[in-house]
Amino acid sequence: MSADIATYFQASVVFAILIIITALYCILVSRNLIRILIGLELMTKAVTLLLAIGGYVSNRMALAQTFIITLIVIEVVVIAVAAGVVIGSYRHNNDLDAGKMNNLKG
Amino acid sequence: MKLDFDTLNIVLLALMLASAVWAVVTSRLLMAAVGLALTSVVLTLVLFILKAPMAAVFELSVCAGLITVVFISVISLTKSVNDIEAHEIKMKRIKRFIFLPVFLVLAGWLLSVKALHLGSHEALPAESATMQEVLWFTRRFDLIGQILVILAGVFGVIVLFKTKHSVDGETKQ
Lengths: 106, 173
Known about the structure:
The complex is a heterodimer.
Chain A: H1 3-29, H2 33-57, H3 61-93
Helix pairs in contact in A: 1-2, 2-3
Chain B: H1 5-25, H2 29-49, H3 53-77, H4 83-96, H5 100-113, H6 131-138, H7 140-161, E1 164-165, E2 171-172
Antiparallel strand pairs in B: 1-2
Helix pairs in contact in B: 1-2, 2-3, 6-7
């Protein structure tokens, strides 16, 4: 692996980790359900970046693309169902605050 | 001015991080959804540069397009806040996210200073198969999984949004 690609690989991994930290922080401190979904979505963006750079470095871009497409399909289904859950929760509680979802509290 | 390939890549990665941080920090939900779409668009450019055009097209159409539409629909289906509530939310967000830049700078500095040991990651011989061949022949089982996931999602959405008709004719959701 050439020095240029190694540098780019290192930089990509660093930026992907920083995006994961940002998304995790968002999920941890946000109470709004839509913001939690946005955090989840951002984490998948970082994983997509890692898959792409992994495929580029190992010369297996076709395989990496198939994984990315699979990830995108799973991501969109998860977001669609989660959006449905958010709307259902809003209709039930009239609020998007995750802290107020205590109906199952024992 | 000629832009270096590596410089362009690093600028795109920095832009992706900046749009991700903006999507998280901004107090307006609509702007957060736009920030997320912007992150997808920048990721699309990165994928194009990394010679992954099919994945880039999927990312642009599905993630930047469809998912943004889903988010904006959810935001429009829920209640909007008035000016006083918006100001309170903004103040709360500033308090909550005050540590995020510190964490990012610290993590970025630590990861940049200390070289990551991520294995040998030696480049393998160039693969002869195209992306379509890999998808249809090598990873055929993934396609079955994708179909099942989509079916599960469709059933999930149907169950979540179905309306119930009670005996007295009243419609419940």
